[in-house]
Amino acid sequence: MLNWFKKGSKTEEDSLLKVIEQFKKSGDFIDFQNPQSPTHYWISYFGSLVDAEIIHRDILPYLNKSSFKKIEDLKAALPIENIVVTSDLGQIQQMMLTGSVLIRLNIADKQGLLVRAEMNKAREVTIPEEEFSVVGPKESFVESLTTNLNLIRKRLPIPELEIKEFKIGNLSKTRVAVVYISGIANEENINTALQRVGDIQFHQILDSSYIAQMIQDNDNSPFPQLIDTERPDRAAGVLAEGSIVILVDGSPHALIGPTTLVKFFSALEDYFVNWQLASVLRILRLIAVTFSILVTPIYVAILNYHYELIPKDLMATLVSSRSLIPLPPFFEALILELTIELLREAGARLPTKVGQTIGIVGGIVIGTASVEAGLTSNVLLIIVALAALASFTTPVYKMSNTIRMIRFPFLVMAELWGLVGIAIAFIFLMGHLLRLTSFGRPYLEPIYPPRIEDLKDAFVRLPFKMQPKRPVELQSPETIKFSEKAAKQKKDIDE
Fold first, then answer.
1. Model confidence pLDDT, tens digit, residues 76-117
2. How far apart are CA 349 and CA 132, in angstroms?
3. How far apart are CA 142 and CA 126, in angstroms?
4. Dihedrals φ, ψ of 474, to 5°?
5. Where, by residue number, does the polypeptide cross the bilayer (predicted)?
6. Which of 100, 55, 56, 62 is nearest to 78 (CA)?
7. Which of these, 22, 216, 385, 423, is most buried using a 10 Å CB contact count?
8. What pTM, to 2 d.p., does this model score?
């Protein structure tokens, strides 16, 4: 906080006037006196932060109606809650900068009356854009923290749902809320989240992604260690399991932790369909991600070092496809991969309709032209296109970015040492994942450490009645969700 006075040089009343004078340097600051009212008062506020309707409806009519000699009498007359009377310069400055109106009965008063009248301009709740589902709720988080907390509270109307708020950022003073259910969330997880969020020292926080980068366990890992979601139903669901949710004012995304790798391939829609279909979709996503990472490196490795593995019937097709290609397989694959990434980036940065057109037309034109020009083969073009398509099956956007990035080290290792190089890259990848944690919890759970109970909702999703316990990796003190025996009883009313 700025210090507006020096000891021994200014009195407290002079300091308050200096605060007002400093605020007057801003064009949106309003400070005026109304000598015609029964009470001569001074009112000061930032027009860009304050709702003018509240001032004209709930403040000015009462100031102009009666005469007040004490600030406490004025406080009792105003029909507004949470009115503060204070002489604390820091509190006055902070409240005015967040949408409060300062009222003084005399210009040299040592204290003022602060009335909250902030302007709340927020986007309406709409459907999710990144985590859209055909079935299930259609609400998503917005940029207002108060609205987001309301979306969670109406799904979990219990007193055990606790919210701890922080103000982070020396300049932005951004509200950050840590949400959990007392008695279900592990105390160690709660303390870890509160301590890490509370220890953040930064000048401004613009989005939840800032918080995620500052509180994750390993800053040097390409893998996200907190799930980023825009769905309040998903946030409420993980809270009931024992996870911690972090919300940031101004961000339409919530952070979920601790988490594991397999949860990034689990879509919320998996719980809205029958368990057989959900299990098939999860396995399909895992196969697609593996295919996306390995298929191009395997193509390069086989053509460079292991061509004896190619079936005779396929060999003729590959030879004819590459007969006029002047580039080695590695550079051929690298050009196509970079082209796909350029199209993705261009489509993401352009307006929606233009981006879609660029992605479709650009992919067709560049792909066709590169084959006709003899720069790439038909087979590799199909392989790279399928790999790009498979990477989009990841439900969490940040994980799909990671999948796109780790393809390139595998491609380089395949060029250097063939399939042995791919195996070495895989060993390094697994070693990194084995060391990785989220809020101190194993990232590869339930694979390592192996936990049979958590496998019921990992690679496949078994029926709800077979999942009576909360995930072991969350270490919830309340492990039982419901009675397994009661869930298996299926008696009709007429039996």
1. 888 887 788 888 888 888 889 888 899 888 877 778 889 888
2. 20
3. 8
4. -85, -15
5. 283-305, 379-397, 409-434
6. 62
7. 216
8. 0.86
